[in-house]
């Protein structure tokens, strides 16, 4: 079976200071690097999913506000929430509603800074509430310590690839 080449754009959004740049850095480079260019950052992967060989180029685009400009071209949205800030959860809800209103469904919420759990104002029950209300998936991570990244990207890729293959089968 031939390798299917795909290019996906992941829009990374969330409140200021939530850890969007650190999240991208950890996913792409395997370590936190606080200074990233505000351009697209690319990661290439080869996977076999449901018997299909895929070569996927993932473009990560960090955005601060104005997410409506990125909705039409995004494959997925990753909303980073600072678990030490209740305002971060409120902003995440607003972003998710805007994305859902545009009929987009590949939304993943990242609860960041779990290494600061004793300062947390948001925790798993709040993330479960988002999941149930908006049909999103969520993950709890620490970009500082690298906790929670073991299967995160694999899970996101599998979720999107499975939905994409199901949609194409119905066309």
UniProtKB/TrEMBL annotation:
<dbReference type="InterPro" id="IPR027417">
    <property type="entry name" value="P-loop_NTPase"/>
</dbReference>
<dbReference type="Pfam" id="PF00071">
    <property type="entry name" value="Ras"/>
</dbReference>
<dbReference type="GO" id="GO:0003924">
    <property type="term" value="F:GTPase activity"/>
</dbReference>
<dbReference type="InterPro" id="IPR050227">
    <property type="entry name" value="Rab"/>
</dbReference>
<dbReference type="GO" id="GO:0005525">
    <property type="term" value="F:GTP binding"/>
</dbReference>
<protein>
    <submittedName>
        <fullName>RAS-related protein</fullName>
    </submittedName>
</protein>
<dbReference type="InterPro" id="IPR001806">
    <property type="entry name" value="Small_GTPase"/>
</dbReference>
<keyword id="KW-0547">Nucleotide-binding</keyword>
<keyword id="KW-0342">GTP-binding</keyword>
């Amino acid at each position: 079976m031939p390798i299917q080449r795909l290019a996906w754009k992941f829009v990374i959004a969330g409140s200021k200071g939530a850890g969007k740049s650190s999240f991208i850095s950890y996913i792409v480079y395997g370590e936190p690097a606080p200074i990233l260019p505000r351009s697209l950052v690319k990661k290439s992967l080869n996977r076999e999913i449901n018997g299909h060989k895929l070569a996927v180029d993932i473009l990560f685009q960090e955005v601060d506000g104005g997410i409506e400009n990125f909705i039409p071209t995004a494959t997925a949205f990753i909303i980073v929430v600072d678990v030490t800030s209740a305002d971060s959860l409120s902003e995440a809800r607003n972003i998710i509603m805007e994305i859902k209103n545009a009929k987009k469904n590949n939304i993943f919420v990242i609860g960041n800074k779990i290494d600061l759990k004793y300062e947390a104002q948001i925790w798993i029950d709040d993330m479960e509430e988002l999941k149930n209300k908006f049909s999103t998936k969520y993950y709890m991570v620490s970009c500082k310590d690298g906790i929670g990244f073991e299967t995160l990207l694999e899970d996101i890729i599998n979720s999107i690839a499975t939905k994409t293959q199901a949609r194409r089968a119905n066309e």
